Structure to design on (324 residues):
């Protein structure tokens, strides 16, 4: 068996809250709380959960755009969490991110060519001006844009086209792993499908590995090999996509799935409406974080004991006291 491309081990991220005259740490936001998973080369892991569940923080900690509080990330066996600045710069060639907001993530004062070419210059990947321009044209065409777009500015493009520019920028350094952080969430449904299809084609073409972060299970269904569901900083269920969609085991996954529309009008899903909002990550509920909203929570158990991920099927793990 080959070693995974990425190993995330017990990753924790807390953001300190400072207050008072002396700006002391008075509290902490528990953004991620012991996240672990492996990712094989060429695989796509969908990561899903409501806003504030820690999915984007997990992506950023993997790349060290945020410093994890504790835990370990290994990429191709190399420890990312302890990497020096020089090592991180080299790792940035292998690990890239596509951000959610194609409007905010592109510098409006730079031409599209300069945006895509920035990493080529930083990593000294194109020895001559001609090679630099040829590479930018190649990248534009790879994502369905054309050479004459190179000298234009981001505001001249639609949302879908801007996200293609973001994808071209990520591909410039020929990465192995791309984290798509809500990469299609800001787009219309029809454009979402086009961008997802493009990402799938690129994966085939360039042997890419994806972490595909979204807040909606319907968005990741098509592209994911496996799906991890997060709630208040923890993975509550992780499974091959077909198993998770056909036989969800965690009550939270069931609730998320019940909101996904089914294309066949004759098939009706019973909608599970969760009570209340996601609790504050400053003081997450004890025991199972989900117990304050769980329709089957058991008093004296779920509000005291933290459920750990246990195997319930092939590659299928769930963190729930009452599901096996
Ligand atoms: Fe619900 Fe308890 Fe399972 Fe948590 S552990 S999901 S509260 S039944």
């Amino acid at each position: 068996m080959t070693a995974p491309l990425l190993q995330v081990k017990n990753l924790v991220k807390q953001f300190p809250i400072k207050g008072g005259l002396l700006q002391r740490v008075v509290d902490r936001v528990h953004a991620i709380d012991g996240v672990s998973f492996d990712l094989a080369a060429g695989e796509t892991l969908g990561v899903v959960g409501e806003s504030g569940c820690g999915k984007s923080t997990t992506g950023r900690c993997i790349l060290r755009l945020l410093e994890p509080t504790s835990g370990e990330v290994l990429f191709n066996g190399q420890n990312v969490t302890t990497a020096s600045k020089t090592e991180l710069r080299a790792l940035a060639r292998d690990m890239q991110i596509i951000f959610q907001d194609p409007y905010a993530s592109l510098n409006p004062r730079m031409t599209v060519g300069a945006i895509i070419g920035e990493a080529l210059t930083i990593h000294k990947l194109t020895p001559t001006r001609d090679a630099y321009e040829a590479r930018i044209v190649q990248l534009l065409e790879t994502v369905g844009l054309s050479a004459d777009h190179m000298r234009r500015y981001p505001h001249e493009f639609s949302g879908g086209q801007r996200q293609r520019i973001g994808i071209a920028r990520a591909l410039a350094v020929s990465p192995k792993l791309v984290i798509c952080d809500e990469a299609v969430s800001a787009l219309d449904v029809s454009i979402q499908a086009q961008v997802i299809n493009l990402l799938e084609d690129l994966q085939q073409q360039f042997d890419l590995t994806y972490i595909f972060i979204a807040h909606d299970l319907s968005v990741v269904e098509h592209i994911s090999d496996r799906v991890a569901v997060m709630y208040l900083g923890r993975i509550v269920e992780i499974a091959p996509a077909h198993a998770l969609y056909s036989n969800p085991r965690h009550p939270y996954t069931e609730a998320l799935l019940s909101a996904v529309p089914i294309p066949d009008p004759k098939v009706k899903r019973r909608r599970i409406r969760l009570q209340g909002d996601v609790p504050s990550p400053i003081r997450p509920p004890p025991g199972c974080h989900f117990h304050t909203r769980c329709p089957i929570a058991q008093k004296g158990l779920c509000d005291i004991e933290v459920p750990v991920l246990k195997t319930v099927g092939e590659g299928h793990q769930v963190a729930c006291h009452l599901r096996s």
About this structure: The two ends are 27 Å apart (CA to CA).
